[in-house]
Each structure stands twice: as structure tokens, then as C-alpha cells.
Amino acid sequence: MFPIHFAPLQGFTESAYRLAHYRFAPGIDTYYTPFLRIEKGNVREKDLRDLETDLHFIAETLDGASTDKQGTNSKRKPYHLIPQIIVRDRAEFEILTKTVTGLGFTEIDINMGCLYPMQAKSGRGSGLLARPEKVREILDAINQFSSEKHVQFSIKMRIGYSEPNESLQLLPMLNDTSLAHITLHPRLGIQQYKGALDFNTFDQFYTDCKHPLLFNGDLANLQQIKYIETRYPKLSGIMIGRGLLANPVLAAQYAGIPCETPIDTLLKIHTEMLADYTGRLQGSAQILNKIRPFWTYTEIPKKIQKKIEKSRNLAEYLEAVNELS
Ligand SMILES: Cc1cc2nc3c(=O)[nH]c(=O)nc-3n(C[C@H](O)[C@H](O)[C@H](O)COP(=O)(O)O)c2cc1C
To answer: From CA 244, how far away is CA 53, in angstroms rounded?
Structure first.
């Protein structure tokens, strides 16, 4: 049985989602924040506010089961969150790493897979994979920070930006770097989500990678997870993104942990998030904009999906959602 990691998903797995998911859907080993980034020379405020919500929850649960105001079963695996950062050079790496460690986190994931053109074209995310000299600069900084500041870094990457051998060429450098694990999504940055997964390149990376390795990509049901488990028995885990947005109890089902149905769990997570947004955001239009994408990757009846998409206000939206229960 592999540990299941919940992939970072910008616009979806923010703290409201992560905490609601943790509360209602057991079985996740590690959550990741969507990438934290530099904006005008500093870490984006919004990303930091999001992290603080998690920190508050972690402090509350550490205080003891009795003070767990979320009502989470205290016998459960503790909530494990790794902040992810996106950087193009050592300077950005230092600002983000110092900020994140300053908050008390001792693990950081580096994004070398993002395909958003704004990031990739300026040499961040998957854009880094085509710039080995910049990767070297960042890996040197990783080695320095991990030995001096006792921070554990991991990398989440694609097999390349435009060529699959980019990851294989970087592998000796990665092998020489102090890393907790690598997560590999076997597609190119320029492929986005199109085309088949490149299992040939994953096979080679899997054979030569000296770090614990996680597989990520297109896993949406138990058969697919079992296939990866059988094909790659030496993996250290599996990371799932959209499959968990569609079926939030996929990890629990895989681990054989008793859980509610996917739709009941989705509705519970949704109710919790709506309450969170209602408490924090002003105006129903803002709340609607924030909550509506929740259903994007879910497998709900098409008719209801359409109604949700077309709803003009919160009342219409809730009427559509209520048809699911
Ligand atoms: C909407 C969306 C947002 C994403 N945001 C991030 C992100 O912030 N950091 C990251 O490393 N990957 C991000 N990804 C990539 C996912 O983490 C994951 O690698 C990808 O979806 C493939 O896994 P899956 O098929 O299990 O979803 C994002 C993907 C999507 C669809």
C-alpha cells in the first residue's frame, strides 16, 4: 500500500479545501499548497494568509484532541502539509524559503512542473527544466539550506519542458542533491494535459533515480492505482490531483478505510467551504465566484453541472447543488 499524496491544485486545494478534505476524507499522507510565488519582490500576501489558516489548525490539533474544534477524529494521522514554492533562480528561492521556514515549516516542495505560460516562459515551473544552469543554482541552494537550516526539500516535476530527455539529463544532478523525494508527472510542460503519459521516460527515471520517487498523473480509480503499484513496486508513494477532486474518498477506498460515498463527502466538503467563504468574503457574487469551480472536476449529472455553471446568483447556485443531495 503506497502513501497517497494530494497534489497541489492552484485555485482548488487552498486551505479551505484542504482542511475540509482532511476532516471528511481520511487516507491522505501529505497535502501540498498550490505554489507560493513572488509578487513585486515579496511573497504574495494571499498565499501567506492561506498558510496561516493551516498553521492555526495545526496548532489547534497539536494542543490536544480535546481542543480540536473541527471535531476531527483525534486518532487520525496528523494533518501533514508541505508548502510548495515556484522559483526561477536562487534569489527567489531564498526569499520564499526564508519566509516559509520562518513560519515554522521544515519541508518545502519545489515546483518544476508548472505549465502556465506566464510561469514557464519566465523560467519557472516546467520552464526550469530546459535551463540546467538555473537548476544547478537552485540545487546548490537546496544543498546549502538543507544542511545549514535543516529544511527538507522535495521536487515536483515533469519529464521536460519540450523534450523528454531534459529530466533524464538533470537526473545525475538531482541524485547528488539532498532531497526527501521527487514526484514525476510523465508529460512535457508544452503537452499540458494532452497526449498519453510517457511511461518509457518514467521507466528510465524510475530505474536511475536514487531518491524516493512518487508517480503522478491521470490516476482516477483503484484499478489505475493498482496498475502503477504493480508496475513500479519501488515507488515511495503516489500523488493524485484531479482524481481526488472528482472522488475525495479515493485514497480512503484504496487504503480500505471506512468512508462515506464520494457524493456525500463532496457535499460535506462543499458545505464546510461555503461556510468558510461566507465568513470571510463579502457579497454573494464573490462567494459564488469562489465556490462554483469546486464542481469543475466532479462527476455529477450533466444537467446539474450545467445548472451550476449557469447560475446567476447564490440562490440559483444553491438550488442546483441541493439537487445532488
Ligand atoms: C487546475 C490545476 C492547478 C494546478 N496547480 C498546481 C500547482 O500549484 N503546483 C503544482 O505543482 N502542480 C499543479 N498542478 C498540477 C497537478 O498538481 C498535477 O500534477 C496534475 O494535475 C496531474 O495530476 P492528476 O492527473 O492526478 O491531476 C495543477 C493542475 C491543475 C489541473
So the answer is: 22
Query: What global pTM score does this model have?
Result: 0.96
**Which of the four CATH numbers 3.30.565.10, 3.40.50.150, 3.30.420.130, 3.20.20.70 does domain 4-255 have?**
3.20.20.70
Residue 108 host element (H or E): strand 107-112
The rounded Å distance from CA 192 to ligand 1 centre is: 10
The DSSP string of 8-70 is --TTTSSHHHHHHHHHH----SEEEPSPB-EETTEE-HHHHHHHHHHHHHHHHHHT-GGG-TT
Q: Domain residue spans in the chain? A: 4-255, 262-322
Distance, CA of 76 to CA of 78 (rounded, Å):
6
pLDDT of residue 62: 76
22-33 pLDDT tens trace: 999 999 999 999
Q: How far apart are CA 278 and CA 219, in angstroms?
A: 33
The whole-angstrom separation of Cα 11 and Cα 293 is: 8
Q: What are the tens digits of pLDDT across the range 128-182?
A: 999 999 999 999 999 999 988 889 999 999 999 999 999 999 999 999 999 999 9
DSSP per residue over 152-187, as a string? EEEEEEEEESS-THHHHHHHHHHHTS--SEEEEEEE
Q: How far apart are CA 223 and CA 242, in angstroms?
A: 16
> In this structure, which residue's CA is closest to atom 6 in ligand 1?
9
Q: Is the pLDDT of residue 294 over 50?
A: yes
Residue with cell 440559483: 316
**What is the SS3 assignment for 306?**
helix
pLDDT per residue as tens digits for the range 108-125: 999 999 999 999 999 999
Ligand 1 pocket, residues with Cβ under 6 angstroms: 7-12, 34-35, 84, 111, 113-114, 156, 185, 216-219, 240-243
